[in-house]
Every structure is written in C-alpha cells, then in structure tokens.
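Posting for a labmate who doesn't have an account.
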Amino acid sequence: MTPLDQLPEVRTELFIDGESQGADDALAVADPADSTAVVGYAAAASAKQATSAVAAAHRAFPAWSALTPQERAELVLAALAPLEADRPATAEVLTRENGKIRTESFIDSIVFEHRFRLAAGLVDQIGQVTRLPAPPYDTEISYLPLGVVTIIVPFNWPLAILAASLPQALLAGNTVVVKPPPTAPLATVRTAEQVARALPPGVLNVVTGADAEIGAALIQDERVKKVCFTGSPAGGKRIMAMAAPSLTRVALELGGNDPAIVLDDADLGDEAMRRLFSGTFDSTGQICMATKRLYVHRSRYDEVVEGLSALLTGTRLGHGLDEQVTMGPLHHPRQLEYVRELLGQASASGAEILEFGAPAEGADVSRGNFLQPSLVLDPDDDARVVTEEQFGPTLPILPFDDADDAVARANDTWSGLCSSVWTADPERAAGIAARLRTGYTFVNAHGAAHLDERAPFGGFNQSGMGREMGIEGIREFMDTHSVGFPASG
C-alpha cells in the first residue's frame, strides 16, 4: 500500500451539458481518519452554474423522453462500461474521503452497477398500458416521465444510494442533476461523470458545492419536477420547505431508529450472531438501516451480550486502507461528539457501557474521528441512546419478557425505516413483522447485505416518503396519464 502521506490529492470538476466545467471556488475534502490530511478538492459551483445544470437537463428532456424505455436502457447499460476497470481507484478515493474500510468501498461501487442492471431488467414494464373497455369509454392508462429530477445523496454509501434512484429516473425518461455530498463528493463525481459522458449531453449532470450556495437553484427552480433526498429528518424538512412554494414533488429517505426483536426461540449460533453484528456495526454504524435498538427476550439476553462481545473484541481501528483494520472512523467530528454525548447520558442514568476493540498495529487514531464500538446494557427506554438515531458504533440492548411488549416498545418511535425479527418459527416471524410499523422487516438478519433489492424500499413515519427500487421506484419518477376515447359504434 502506498503510504498515506504520499497519496495524491484528488480534484474533481462539475459536469454540465456533456462537458467538464471548473468553478471559482473549491470544497476541501478532509480525511476522517486524519484531521490534518486533505484528500482533495471538488469544484464548488455557483448558483448560476447550478441553474445552468438544470437548464441543460431541461433542454435534454424532450429528446431523451422520446426514446423508448428499451432504447434508454441500452444507452444506460452501455454507459456502465468504464466502471469495473476504475473500481480500485474509486474505492481508494471513497475510503479516503468517507472513512469506511476499503472492502465496503468496493461493495459500494459494485452495488452502484448492480442496481442499474436490476432497474434495466424492469424496462418492459415501464411503457405498459392498461386498457379499460367501454362502456362508457375506451380508456388507456399509461405513465409519463416527470422532467428534470434533482438527486441529493449522503456521505455514507453515496454510490449505492445514488443508484437506488438514478437508474430509475433515467429509465423512466427523466433527465437528472446529481448533487454529491459536500464532505465526500469525490468518488461520486468520478463515477457519475463516467456514466454521464456516455449519455447525450444534458441527460445527466453532476454539480458539487455548498448547500447554501446551490441548494435553492437545484430545488426551487420551477423546471425541477422532483427532488430525491437521502439524509436526516431535519434535512428532509428543509427540502420540503424549499420545495413547497413551487409544489415540487419530493422523495425522502430519512434514516431510522431501527429495532430488532430477538424472541426466546431464536437461533443464536455463530452465523446468526455474525449477521446481527454486521447489521449493526458495518460502516462504523453509519447506515440508515442498521440495527439501532436491540430488544432481547430476557431468557436469551446474556447469550446475545456474550456473542456480540466476542465479535466486538476483535475490532481493529485505523485507516480504512489498512488491510488490518476492521472499523474506520466516524465521518465527521460533530458525529463523534454526538455519539459520545449519547453514551455519556446513558452512563449518567445508570446504564452499563461495554467498550471493545483496539487500534490496529501501527495505527494512529489520535488524529481521527475514532470511537471504540460499544454495547449499552439495559438503558431506560427514554434514554437518548434509545430514542435517537445514534448513527455510530454503539448498540443499546434492552430485555423484554413479553413479545407484545417488545412490539409496542419497538413501534414507540419517530422512525419507521427497517426492523428485524429473530425466531426459529416462520409463522411467528410473519405475525410479529405484520405489526411492526416499518417499510422493510428482515427475518433472522438485518441490514443492507440482506436487502432484496428487487423489492421497494422506503420508510414509514419520519423515515421518509416514497419508495426506491423495484417497479414502484420507477413509477416514483412518472405521472399517471389517462386517455378516454368515445365508445365506438
């Protein structure tokens, strides 16, 4: 591995109307594992440049939407050709700017392409027409693309999350402006630009910059017909408020405080414990669908604590490019302080906190956003580490005696993204799952590695609105159109 201090700075530009474009200012991208290191710089667009990207997408829309879905799919799939050869370099950049381990960055890039191919497999359903015969009319029901779509992605899994909406928007016949995360834009720009270069000018544009500078242009321009945002509930509320004057549609995936319920008959063997561990602590816990609250039947409580403790003991902290490292830093110093604050409050209220892991050999964790992973044992139900989304490497574990009580406590939350049920009885799992108010429920697993990406994904309550992936995800980017013909004869 090239020494970290010898890795080159990465620079990216804007991509508007088929061409790269510089900017007067740049965003400095920090390395979460070393606050003294700058990974590179991304062009910081002006409001005028963001408006130019919207205008380019608006101009490209008539010709792109006039193609058949099959023609669009052929062009989009061909545009993926450069990605595989560039994947090692993209993964390295993503790890440096995001903080997660290199293996996860590879997966992020692979999932990007995989989700494009899954969406393309639905192309024959896009143009389907439903006919209602007379009397009183012969009516045809079809679906039409919306127009220009803005997609705003977060830092944690930017490529995979982008591909939960970008291919669907393009295949439906829309044109797109992508806004990568300002704190980790480089790999997303790199990937999206490679795809955009192979498409007609203006169909896919990529604009980086400060939210305050370009946000209004990408959301409030009346040519923008839909905004897709993944982030926090607070961020989602800001997007909705900005979109309200023009009644621009929004699709929001806003994270969750995901509960997992371990019943008394659950299989807690080694493989099951690894699934539970991964579904909680992958990406340093910075995954929207990660387990955030673990409710365990009292008869299995010690077993779960012991199993997770054994796995957490092997955690090795350090830079994500180091092959010895199993957990990188939190992405931002503010998040580090937030998780520490939640743990401090839980400790002060009497909960026991178990911390695990150690720095990898030779790793210097003093300059990064590192935090040992932890378990919070039997906190109060109203402790902040239980009621708020930690988005970090900690897990509150709460005992229960009655399954009905566990379901009620799991549902007593602002969120509703994902949940999981752990039991050896499929019928019991189905019964519990039907009562959980979340958009997706896993059985004997939890997390992105076990998500069926053919199915629609999205949240209840303040976890968002709208659905990604599946044919439902494509329909999110289309309007229903009915045409009624007078009955003949």
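Reply:
Got it, the structure tokens are right above this. The chain has a mean pLDDT of 97.
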